[in-house]
């Protein structure tokens, strides 16, 4: 049994770690706005949730500035090294998932912090990094999820990384004080020198020195040339809402495609939590994933036909192919699942929905020199097949799972929502939005109700439909009889990801929900 939502009259912060949520709330109380608070949350997560996110990873941001009354996207994903080629992995069949040769894309998160603050912030980078620096230097109580992630992926850590995350060769206990003095020093460099310290100064110098010594591919030139970008969101209209996502190279359009399919069905006649509900959502998502896997890559290298994919007539064609009684036999690419989503709303009506990741737990498993920065392994998702849409090429962004969501009514945010979970992100987002919109659930209940995730994650041989057993034996049996390869999982299973949501009422109150499957908190006032 879970508690009800946290309800505030002005502000709300949700994240997967209570200390990160608290950091955002502190920044708001100190006079910062939603953008300042969001960067503080992001930076604190990079310290207190190091198995999920960090300075060596990427971030995507959906921002709503009340003064502009406009939703914008900041794509904070990094490009591959200039020096990396498909033949760099000749005879290997695939890019390694771990190690120095999986760390082939420039970390984009620090750049995104600077960009968001420069455009919308009130406070300095140094001010908003203060909570993160404090937790890195002084330590914090290790969370249950970090311990679980360490038990799961600790063997993949390179020796220097293991020295940090497995002190004394053992997985730390939950609640044990855990500090990262090297990372604290790096964050201080960033606070003092700004973005250039990371991409043109001492941090870039140390990472590139380490790469050269260890046989990696990233160079000073890769860091100096990195830039994220402000861009327009993609969107669709759904039952009176305009739902926004980040454009490619994000997979966000797959969630919009799914909503366009679901628009063809009458949810008033579909009981929440029934076989019909789970089956319909699963089948709609499968069809969206099929198109996503065919076309998604860096739009600078290949055209992504969004006009066709988000066309309502095309959605009607796809929806007509959904059988109410049988599961389609479709596959999908296995993707990583370790991510951190958070959102902030302030008293002026500004809103930020954002998500960040190292890709796998602890990313590449490699810490860059004495920086304390775990490098992401996002580039390992590139294909080595020259005919594949997501084939590896120099200075290219890969297919990206990160996808924060925001839904507006009459030009103002109503729902901010997202989740950890690679392949599960479009799936859980669809569950959250349909629950809040069609069934009137508050954010906490929408997040806490039984969830499913379809597809294949790394190391698993089948396209399973994993469903939390709380869905009930009758529903699980009906899904299996329809042809779904059903695997019941724990009542609140972490494989479903860590989802969070904010709902903004017509009276201006804000409700927040955080996932009982993680260590998060919703804080509002």
Tags for this model:
seven-stranded antiparallel β-sheet, alpha+beta, 525 residues, Glutamine Phosphoribosylpyrophosphate, subunit 1, domain 1, 17 helices, globular
Number of domains: 2
The percentage helix is: 25-40%
- Which regions have little confidence, pLDDT < 50, spanning 5+ residues? none
- What order do the strands of the largest sheet run in, or round the barrel if closed? 1-18-17-13-12-9-8
Report the total helices.
17
What's the helix and strand layout?
Elements (H helix, E strand, L loop, with lengths): L5 E3 L3 E4 L2 H12 L4 H15 L9 E8 L4 E7 L32 H12 L4 H14 L1 E2 L2 H10 L5 H7 L11 E2 L2 H13 L1 H5 L2 H13 L5 H5 L4 E3 L2 E5 L2 E5 L6 H11 L12 H21 L10 H4 L2 H9 L17 E8 L5 E9 L45 E5 L2 E8 L4 H15 L4 H6 L3 E4 L8 E5 L4 H9 L4 E4 L9 E6 L5 E5 L6 E4 L1
Parallel strand pairs: 15-16
Antiparallel strand pairs: 1-18, 2-10, 2-19, 3-4, 3-11, 4-7, 5-6, 8-9, 9-12, 10-11, 12-13, 13-17, 14-15, 17-18
Describe this structure in words.
- There is one protein chain.
- By secondary structure, this protein is α+β, with helices and mostly antiparallel strands.
- It has two domains: 16-230 and 339-381, no CATH class; 231-240 and 249-336 and 405-524, Glutamine Phosphoribosylpyrophosphate, subunit 1, domain 1 (4-Layer Sandwich).
- The protein contains 17 helices and 19 strands.
- It has helices at residues 18-29, 34-48, 109-120, 125-138, 144-153, 159-165, 181-193, 195-199, 202-214, 220-224, 252-262, 275-295, 306-309, 312-320, 424-438, 443-448, 473-481; strands at residues 6-8, 12-15, 58-65, 70-76, 140-141, 177-178, 229-231, 234-238, 241-245, 338-345, 351-359, 405-409, 412-419, 452-455, 464-468, 486-489, 499-504, 510-514, 521-524.
- The strands form four sheets. It has a seven-stranded antiparallel beta sheet with strand order 1-18-17-13-12-9-8.
- β8 (234-238) and β9 (241-245) form a beta hairpin.
- α4 runs antiparallel to α7 (181-193) and α11 (252-262) packs across α15 (424-438).
- The chain is globular and about 60 Å long.
- The mean pLDDT is 96.
């Amino acid at each position: 049994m879970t508690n009800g939502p946290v309800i505030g009259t002005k502000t709300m912060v949700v994240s997967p770690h209570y200390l990160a949520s608290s950091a955002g709330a502190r920044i708001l109380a100190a006079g910062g706005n939603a953008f300042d608070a969001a960067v503080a949350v992001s930076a604190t997560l990079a310290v207190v949730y190091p198995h999920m996110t960090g300075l060596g990873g990427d971030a995507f941001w959906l921002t709503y500035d009340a003064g502009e009354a406009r939703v914008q996207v900041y794509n904070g994903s990094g490009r591959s090294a200039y020096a990396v080629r498909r033949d760099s992995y000749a005879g290997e069949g695939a890019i390694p998932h771990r190690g120095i040769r999986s760390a082939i894309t420039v970390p984009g998160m620090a750049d995104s912090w600077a960009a968001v603050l420069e455009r919308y912030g009130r406070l300095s980078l140094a001010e908003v990094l203060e909570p993160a620096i404090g937790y890195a230097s002084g330590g914090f109580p290790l969370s249950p999820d970090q311990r679980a992630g360490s038990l799961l992926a600790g063997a993949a850590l390179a020796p220097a990384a293991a020295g940090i995350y497995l002190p004394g060769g053992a997985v730390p206990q939950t609640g044990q004080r855990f500090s990262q003095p090297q990372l604290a020093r790096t964050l201080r460099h960033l606070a003092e020198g700004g973005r250039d310290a990371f991409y043109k100064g001492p941090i870039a110098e140390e990472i590139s020195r380490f790469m050269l010594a260890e046989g990696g591919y990233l160079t000073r030139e890769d860091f100096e040339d990195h830039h994220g970008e402000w861009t327009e969101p993609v969107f669709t209209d759904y039952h009176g809402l305009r739902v926004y996502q980040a454009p490619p190279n994000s997979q966000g359009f797959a969630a919009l495609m799914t909503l366009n399919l679901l628009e063809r069905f009458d949810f008033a006649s579909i009981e929440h939590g029934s076989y019909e509900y789970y089956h319909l959502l699963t089948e709609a998502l499968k069809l969206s994933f099929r198109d996503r896997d065919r076309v998604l890559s860096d739009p600078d290298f290949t055209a992504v036909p969004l006009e066709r994919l988000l066309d309502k007539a095309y959605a009607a064609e796809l929806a007509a192919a959904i059988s109410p009684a049988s599961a389609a036999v479709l596959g999908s690419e296995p993707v990583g699942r370790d991510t951190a989503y958070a959102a902030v709303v302030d008293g002026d009506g500004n809103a930020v929905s954002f998500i960040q990741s190292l890709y796998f737990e602890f990313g590449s498993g490699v810490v860059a020199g004495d920086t304390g920065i775990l490098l992401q392994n996002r580039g390992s998702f590139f294909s080595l097949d020259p005919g594949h849409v997501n084939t590896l090429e120099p200075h290219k962004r890969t297919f990206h799972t990160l996808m924060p969501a925001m839904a507006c009514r009459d030009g103002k945010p109503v729902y901010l929502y997202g989740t950890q979970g690679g392949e599960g992100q479009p799936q859980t987002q669809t569950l959250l939005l349909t629950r809040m919109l069609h069934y009137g659930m508050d954010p906490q209940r929408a997040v806490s109700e039984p969830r499913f995730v379809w597809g294949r994650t790394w190391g698993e041989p089948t396209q399973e439909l994993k469903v939390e057993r709380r869905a009930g034996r009758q529903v699980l049996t009906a899904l299996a009889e329809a042809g779904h390869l059903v695997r019941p999982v724990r009542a609140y299973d972490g494989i479903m990801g860590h989802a969070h949501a904010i709902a903004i009422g017509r009276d201006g109150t804000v409700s927040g929900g955080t996932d009982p499957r993680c260590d998060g908190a919703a804080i509002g006032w």
